[in-house]
Amino acid sequence: MAIKIIEQKNLRWINVDTVDAESLQYLKENFNFHHLDLEDIQGESQTPKIDVYKNYLFIVLQFPHWSGETQTVIHYEMDIFIGENFLVTIQHIKSKEIKKFFYRCMKNKSIKRDWMSKESGYLLYRIIESLFRQTQPILNNIGKQISDIENEIFNKSQDNSMVHELARHRRNILNFRRIIDPQRYLVANLSHTRKSFLNEEMSLYFDNVNDYLSKLWSIVEAYKDTLNGLHVTVESLVNQRTNKLISSLTVISVSLLPLTLLSGIYGMNIDRLPFAHQPIFVWGIFVALGLFILLLITIMRRQRRI
């Protein structure tokens, strides 16, 4: 069944892990939610928001999630209806984080008593706070990968694969940043929303979540600046290697021009060329010119011009 319920005193936590006809019918029969909100939970991913009604709030939250298959940061969405004596959480994708969180509350009586002994606003705080704190390992993992690639940049040769690796990390940081940013303003709005189930005391709890999101934001910004700096560094080192290679090829090409000119002249069928009938002198000219070119290349290499 897609609907699971936990009850503690007068508070009910209803978790819907699949939005289907059965769950929609249940919500319509047991709650007086606005039809636009019910349409929103049936649609595609929504923009994070909070809609305030007389008897309840409708909240759309997004959380960062690490996809092991694609090695990228994606988001999963959770829609929430919260009222005086109820909290409804709706998943669009079956998330092991939310599932683990829900069953932890269901099976552990002390946790259930702690989380559900107060108003529904406190339960909402515990859910949001725990889910956001579970994103910290994602940032730790990204930070470790950035540290590893930084060591590779300065200890090994740079190539196009390094640029691609940096681009992948930059995309993950930008995705994390894009997900976290709207949540900061949403949680700040929650801390200033006043309902019977969201009193002034709850504003302190949501301010705590907002502070934690600000901390995540600072870490993400630091990683973003680091990756931008590493990207510029790698591009500079790769360009330097490319320029050095082009310089070497240019020197070789220019060095061969006199020999090419000389071979072209003596390759013509003309009898009156200097030393045309004395091959030893012609070969001597080639050898002398070749040695002179090698001497110039050696001097330039010592002066690190190539």
Fraction of residues in β-strands: 15-25%
- What's the number of structural domains? 2
Number of helices: 9
Secondary-structure-based class equals alpha+beta
State the separation between the terminal residues, measured CA to CA: 72 Å
Taken from the alpha-carbon principal axes, the silhouette is rod-shaped
Report on the architecture of this protein.
By secondary structure, this protein is α+β, with helices and mostly antiparallel strands. The chain contains nine helices and six strands. The protein has two domains: about 5-240, Beta Polymerase, domain 2; about 245-300, no CATH class. Helices cover about 65% and strands about 15% of the residues.
Topology, pairings included?
Layout (H helix, E strand, L loop, with lengths): L2 E6 L2 E6 L4 H10 L4 H8 L6 E4 L3 E12 L4 E12 L2 E6 L4 H12 L1 H8 L3 H14 L2 H20 L4 H32 L8 H67 L12 H24 L4
Parallel strand pairs: 2-6
Antiparallel strand pairs: 1-2, 3-4, 4-5, 5-6
Helix pairs in contact: 3-4, 5-8, 6-7, 6-8, 7-8, 8-9
